[in-house]
Amino acid sequence: MDFISMPTLISVWIIVLFKDKFFGKYLEEKAKGLATKEDIGRITHEVESIKSQISREDGILKAKYELKYNACLDALELIDSYFSHSLINPDGSLPTKEFRTVADARRCHSKLILTCENQALLDKFLEIFFRNEENGRWINPPIDLLNEFRSVVRTELGFGISPMLNRDMAWFGTFAGEPAKTPVTLLSS
Predict the structure, then answer these.
(1) What pLDDT score does 180 carry?
(2) Contact at 8 Å (CB) between 166 and 146?
(3) Which of 3, 57, 145, 173 might form a disulfide with 89, Cβ 3.0–4.6 angstroms?
(4) CB distance 173 to 93 below 8 Å
C-alpha cells in the first residue's frame, strides 16, 4: 500500500483546516454574486409585470373616460334637439328643428347610467325630459336647466367650475351660417 507522504498530508490538513479562511471569502462572494444576479432577474420580472398591469389599467381608465365623455356630449346634443322643438327664439321666431329618435334617447340615457358616477347628472338629465312641465308650462326655465346640466357635466368630466353664461345667449336656436330653408332665386343682370 502506498502511503501519502507526510508533507502532502500536512498540506492537505492545512488546506482543510484553513479552507474557510482562504476559500470561504471567495466562495461567499461568488454566492453573493449569483444571488444578486438571481435577485436582479426576479426584481426585473416583477417591475415589468407591474408596468404591464399599470399600462392595462391606464388603458381601461382611458376607455372608460372616453365612453363617459361621449355619453355626456350625446346627452347635450339630445337636449339641444329636444329644445329645438320646445323653445322659441327671443325674437319670436322658431328655432331650426333637429330630429332625434326615441332609440337615440334610450341609448343616450343608458350610456349616462353606465358611465357617469354623479347622480346629479342623471337627475338633471331626467328633469329636463320628464319633470319639466306643469300645466303646459316649464317649472324651471329650460335654459337654466341646460346650464345646470352643463355644469354637472363639467364636474363629472373633471373640467372644473362652469363659467357664468348669459341666459339669453346660452343656446342657439338659429345660426346665420345655416343653409337657407327655402330656395333662393338669384337675379341675373
Answers:
(1) 61
(2) no
(3) 173
(4) yes
CA proximity to 75, closest of 142, 146, 131, 130: 146
Asked, for residue 44, whether it belongs to a domain, the answer is no
Quick check: is 110 in a domain?
Answer: yes
Position 27, amino acid: L
In a domain, 38, yes or no: no
Mean pLDDT by 10 residues, the chain (189 residues): 68 69 69 72 84 91 94 95 85 86 95 94 92 76 90 92 78 72 48
Is residue 173, in this structure, part of any structural domain at all? Answer: no
- Domain residues for 83? 64-160
CB contact set of 88 (below 8 Å; sequence gap of 6+): 94, 95, 173
Closest-CA residue to 70 (of 97, 119, 120, 107): 107
Q: What pLDDT score was predicted for residue 163?
A: 81
